[in-house]
Amino acid sequence: MEAVGKGVDSASERVEEIVGELRRSFTERRTVGYEWRVAQLKAILRMIEEREADFMAALYSDLSKPQMEAFLHEISLVRAACELLLKELKHWMKPQKVPTKITTFPSSACIVSEPLGVVLVISPWNYPFLLSLEPVIGAIAAGNAVVLKPSEVAPAMSALFAKVFPEYLDNSSIRVVEGGASETTVLLEQKWDKIFFTGNPKIGRIIMTAAAKNLTPVVLELGGKAPVVVDSNCDLKVAAKRIVVGKWGCNNGQACVSPDYIITTKSFALQLVNALKNTLEAFYGKDPLESKDLSRIVNSNHFERLTRLLDEVEVSDKVVHGGQRNKELLFIAPTLLLDPPLDSLIMQEEIFGPLLPILTVDKVEDSFDIINTGTKPLAAYLFTKNKKLQKKFVMTTSTGAILINDIALQIANPNLPFGGVGESGMGSYHGKFSFDAFSHKKGVLVRGFGGEARARYPPYTPMKQKLLRNLLNGSIVALILALMGWPWRE
Q: What residues does the Aldehyde dehydrogenase domain cover (predicted)?
């Protein structure tokens, strides 16, 4: 654990010392070279390979996350992201040539990706391995010094990061700072070159307010109520399997991209509910409390929060499946609710748990109005074979990402940006987007000492003004005349 001292003053001093050390390392350009970046990325791959069992154990300790889920949704995704960055990094670091304009002829131009400096990554508890390491490797690949602040709500993973980072990574440029709200506050008081935060909109506002004091740019990966629209014109058996595994197979619903509610037509609702019930029983058994393939609720506070959503007077009688809970084990079974009131808490707050309301409308197109009257979600999903409906959904729904006929798989494609819009966040990452998120795109224009044009310089006579206007309008004749020194006698 990176000690930050006891008390606000000592914690602040220790954090200032850490940031100062990283700032000196960056100023000395230790992190900028290709070799350093590659060495750190390879070290992370080695760390994953050698300590995979430890990371799995930490995920189980913090969330009772099933082994296969932990591997598929966390370990394998970080490994793939790291391997992609290693493969493409040299290419991405090269200056990107861009066209020049007639007004700067003769010249060459390019865009240089340079590291921002010293960056802060604040990660969440629900995917404490993936959502810590993926932004960190993006920051490293871009050539930055990095401080990782893991979530204290996932203490086993936080402690493990603090232990193993110094064993594998350059401690002069990459550090872990553990702690809770007070330590985060102290970190936010420092000057950073970028802050990357994954969490909820409430804390996102605090992050953004703190960043504004130093005009620090931010990436905010927040959440939202991700809708799933299910059209009757779909393969219901396949849709049900994909919805179930995308909701409850993603940390038992504790995921920013998992479905928050379903919208379907009144005439199709019963078929959908039955298909979901059958699939839940097939996947997790008649008593899901005994299933080994479901994560538990992260802590008692979140358990109580979900219980309040479920026990609200106008909501409790809307349960059509599930609802079992065990406070001692912090477990709530997969639960379906049919048509809870739109003004209920469960429909106003992001659920972030194993509860899934189903709303009904007269025709499937009515679902778009429900989605668009709420805050913009991080993801939106549609199940249909209707190509026109797919196109309309894409064109009329504002969301961080859209996936047609599946759930959550958009995060597995590194060629797509991952990020929110509006209330669900700003900025994006994954693949090249991670490299870009932690880079400054510096424009570079190079000219020689030739190509002088008298018309460029005062005094601006009427003839010079005429020539310059034609030149700015893209006239090749004007360019030739300017390079020849016309007007010759003015």
A: 4-442
Residue of 468, 162, 223, 454 whose CA lies nearest to 351? 223
Number of domains in the chain: 3
What is the tens place of the pLDDT at every residue in 129-188? 999 999 999 999 999 999 999 999 999 999 999 999 999 999 999 999 999 999 999 999
Q: 15: Cβ–Cβ under 8 A, 6 or more apart, which residues?
A: 4, 177, 183, 186, 187, 189, 190
Of the candidates 355, 347, 344, 348, which has an alpha carbon nearest to the alpha carbon of residue 320? 355
- For residue 248, the 8-state DSSP code is T
Q: Are 132 and 123 in contact (CB under 8 A)?
A: yes
110 phi, psi to nearest 5 deg: -155, 165
| 465 and 400 together in one domain | no
pLDDT per position as a tens digit, 202-256: 999 999 999 999 999 999 999 899 999 999 999 999 999 999 999 999 999 999 9
Active site residues per annotation: 221, 256
Question: Are 147 and 209 found together in one domain?
Answer: yes
Question: Locate tokens 């059209």: which residue?
Answer: 231
Cα separation, 346 vs 184, whole angstroms? 29
Minimal CA–CA distance to 102: which of 468, 406, 398, 401? 468
Show the tokens assigned to 312: 């609200």
Neighbours of 170 (CB within 10 A): 19
Q: Which residues pair with 439 in a beta bridge?
A: 115
Q: Which of 116, 111, 153 has the alpha carbon at shortest distance from 131? A: 153
CA distance 181 to 179: 7
Q: pLDDT digit string (tens) for 359-387?
A: 999 999 999 999 999 999 999 999 999 99
Scored b (16 or more CB within 10 A) or e, 277-312 reads bebbeebbeeebeebebbbbbbeeebbebbbebbee
pTM for the whole structure: 0.93
The structure tokens listed for 88 are: 């493409």
Nearest CA among 257, 318, 340, 253 for reference residue 288: 253
Strand order of the sheet with strand 194-198?
174-176, 145-149, 118-122, 194-198, 218-221, 425-426
pLDDT digits (tens, 9 = 90+) for 307-342: 999 999 999 999 999 999 999 999 999 999 999 999
Residue 401's pLDDT is: 97
**Residue 489 φ/ψ region, left for φ over 0, alpha for ψ in the -120 to 50 degree band, beta for the rest:** alpha
Cα 166 versus chain centre, distance: 26
Residue 158 belongs to domain with CATH number: 3.40.605.10
Are residues 266 and 153 part of one domain? no
Contacts of 147 by beta carbon, 8 Å cutoff, 6+ apart: 18, 19, 22, 118, 119, 120, 121, 175, 176, 177, 187
Within 10 Å of residue 441's Cβ, how many Cβ atoms?
A: 10
